Each structure stands twice: as structure tokens, then as C-alpha cells.
Input
Amino acid sequence: MRLRTLFLILFAVLGAWGVLLAQKPFKQYAGGEDGDIALPSDYQKPAEWVSARLRYRDAFRRGGFRGFRSEGAWATDYPLGDRHLIVGVQRLTRINARSVEQTVELDGTDDVYNWPFLYAVEVGQWTLDDKEGAQLREYLDRGGFLMVDDFHGVYEWEVFEEGIRQVYPKTPIEDLPASEPIFHILADVDPKVQVAGLRALYSGRTYEQPSDPFPRWRAIYDEKKRIAVAICHNMDLGDAWEHSDEAEYPADMAVMAHRALQNYAMYDLTH
Output
């Protein structure tokens, strides 16, 4: 009987150790657009909700990135965009959010399954192969939530769609009506508002690509009618979060971006 008890204890310890090994530690990539910035003092403090950023391969690797960025398009507005996203959740909701993001990859390990909220930017430049698409599908089927943002126009949409079809080959991509519950969980989001990036605003426009100038709030629903992929096309919510405390950024766009974030984060926790 004692031997059996010792075996069960050893099995439980090894199982817990395996879970810890499956969850990769936090890492800040210095090659992001914002460089190697200082970490908040509480960055190691555990929390009930963590925003993860998807580190993907570029469809077309380009040289000469802005500033000192050596990473790919995934690192646009990284990591300051993520830190502002998190501050918005901390200040405007009761969600206990970790003060730093988690960068994850579709690398065949179990790490991605530890982070139910996955955020990906510039997906008009991503590429997914069969294995990566299958792992992302499993992540979503397990209850994960993917939010994509900051891609624009017809061409970037086609690149995004080519990638997402590695995940959902035939599932339709649907435009979200204003009555969609995800827009009203905590605050009302008006899908007619186009949340613009600074680059567009400096040009006197709210859109970046004339080939498709309208805001597109879209989604992919899973078999349980849960939004698995939230799609913000022809918008840049990341810029709105990052610059919402600056006088030059329009207040109505900043408010809408934060409302969308609040709702998406709460949807992730409750669906």
C-alpha cells in the first residue's frame, strides 16, 4: 500500500513538472519595433488573464525594417502596443491581467495552449504551413480565442485569408452585425467606426489602402457558434491603444478601441 502511495505521489509530481516544462517562460524580443524597453516591476507576478502575441513567419521577408527592428511583421508596435493593451484591461475592467504579454509560436510544443487569448498583427504579411494551421485549429477547438488586427486593403486580405484557410479550409468568414453580443458584453461598440492608425491619420484619412477603405469587423464562428477568430480589417486598434493618451489621437477612435478590447477580453474569459 505504501509503495502504491509513493508511486501516485511521484506520478503527480512528474505530471506537475511536465505542465511547468510545457509553459515557456516570459521572453522579451529586443528586435521588436520598440526595441528592448524596460520591464514593469511586477512582470513576474502571476495573473488570471494574459495577452499572448503570435510570432509568425513573414510571407515575404523584407529587409530595411523601420528603426532597429530585426524581427518580422509580427513585431509591429511590439512590445509597447501590448503593454498599453494590458493597461487598458487593468484600468477599465476587473480582469486581473498580467503586466506583460507572452510571445508564442506555433512550434509544435504545447506552449500555445497555455494562453487562451492570442493577438496577431499585420496578418496581411503572415504565412502558415499545414502543421502550423493544424496546431492553430487545435488551439481554437480547445477554446482559444484569436484576435487579428492592423492589416488593410484587398491584397493584405487575400494574404490573410490564404493563411487562415490552413486553419479553417471551408468555414465562412462573416461580417459581424451591430447586434452581435460580443459588441455589448461590457460596453457598446459601434462597428461603423473605423479605428485608424497614425500613418493613415497623418495622411488625412482613416483608411490605409484605397482598394478597400471601409472598416470590416468580421469573425469566424466555430461549430458551437462561438467566435473563435475576431477579425479587425482596415483598422489599427493597436495604434489606438498605444496612443490613446496622446492629444493628437482622436478620442472617439481610442474609446471604441478600448471598448472592443474590453469586450473581447471578457468574451475570451466567458466563452
